[in-house]
Amino acid sequence: MSKLIMAQENKRIMGGPDKIFGVSNLAKKRIAEIGKDNVVNSTIGALLDDEGNLIVLSSVVDVLKDLAPKDYAEYAPIAGTPEYIDTVKKAVFGNYNPKGYVEACATPGGTGAIRNAIQNYTKRGDTVLTSDWHWSPYGTIAAEIERRLETYTLFDKEQKFNDSSFDEKLNQILKAQDETVVIINTPAHNPTGYTFTLEDWDKVNRSLKNAAKNKDKKITLLVDIAYLDFSGDADQYRAFFSKLEDFPDNILVLIAFSASKGYTLYGMRCGAILCMTPNKDIADEFKMVATFSSRASWSNGTRASMVVLSRIFADKALLSKVTEERNEYLSMLIKRGNIFMHAAKECNLTTCPFDSGFFITIPCKNADQIGEELQKSNIFVIPIGDGIRISIASISEEACSYIPAKIAAAVSKY
Ligand SMILES: Cc1ncc(COP(=O)(O)O)c(C=O)c1O
User: Which of 275, 356, 363, 389 has the maximum number of C-beta atoms within 10 A of its C-beta?
Assistant: First the structure.
């Protein structure tokens, strides 16, 4: 980008082309020309039905429509309403009972949680660690507050979690600085659909605990669970919480909760940051710093969404209704994933190890050219570095069955 005129750079690199919006606009343009039935728009990070309409949980909409003016007009407390803070713990942990102290603070979506985690648990100029495949706003958020993102290689040659790369990068960072935030997005990782297994967690924990033997070091593990409720069985996919207990005091676990996907409240900016710690002082400090950062950035969260979520969790029948409705869509999504992966196998198309969720990634060189080649067949995908991201959340079952062969053909051409 050319030099800023009035604005200050503040060590950020801004204004580069936004690939997601760029390709997404091309898809929209093509749809306008030839109709949506003739275009596969797999660029959208939201759940759509097979006809291409945004899925909105009707049970959630009913609660929203029933709100009284004060439910949305009044300010919410900065940390969130007390009901919401209780609710969020239930929404995150489900039937799992965390052992230590759990505190929570409302944030505008999971994005706000990630922002406040980095802001409070690293210093300006620090490096934050995540995997090479990652949701690109992590880098944007880090840059905005003058931090830097470093990545480890998520998969090894056997397409398993690359614990040695994780360990190496973690130690490298902690050689240069005394504190860091490690972001792990699981289950149903964006963009690969990978879910950390319990064995992967054992490896992560071994590295963290080893690094934390030096008591001058402070490690914050931020688990981004944006897709938790669209990953699979609610209890099974929460089993990893048991791996986040029993850390020494210089490892703090934070959870970034988002209601965007699980409750189809994308635009309501509903989320929270939570801490899990055996140390009450650390929990109290978390509450204080998280509230301070909220006050200093967006102040209070959206009261309407807090009330909606709190009402759902206060009413067993309503909660069952929401869960059942969501589970129907979850089954639809799982079916799309199975169909895509089956078709990929049939045509020898290699994907990153996919478990569940909204996205599947095809590792490849020349992703931009492959993306453009697919556009000739009216298939729109997002090139992401050394791969292309397919949103199975936004395309039909039918498309999931035939696009792998088209992708394989495009990949073989470059
Ligand atoms: C991996 C990941 N984390 C966090 C978020 C945050 O979403 P929101 O701020 O809408 O809750 C998203 C949204 O796309 C995501 O993909």
Answer: 389
Number of Cβ within a 10 Å radius of residue 90: 15
Fold assignment, 19-57+320-413: Aspartate Aminotransferase, domain 1 (3.90.1150)
60 Cβ contact partners less than 8 Å away, ≥ 6 residues apart: 263, 264, 265, 308, 312, 322
Counting from 1 in the atom list of ligand 1, the atom nearest the Cα of 109 is 11
Global model pTM greater than 0.85: yes
pLDDT in tens, 103-126: 999 999 999 999 999 999 999 999
Q: Which top CATH class is 74-315?
A: alpha beta
Please list every protein residue whose CB sits less than 6 Å from any atom of ligand 1: 45, 109-111, 135, 185, 190, 224, 226, 258, 260, 266, 271
**How many Å lie between the centroid of ligand 1 and the Cα of residue 266?**
9
Domain boundaries, the chain: 19-57+320-413, 74-315
The pLDDT tens digits of the residues spanning 206-221 come to: 999 999 999 999 999 9
Question: CB of 400 within 8 A of CB of 392?
Answer: yes
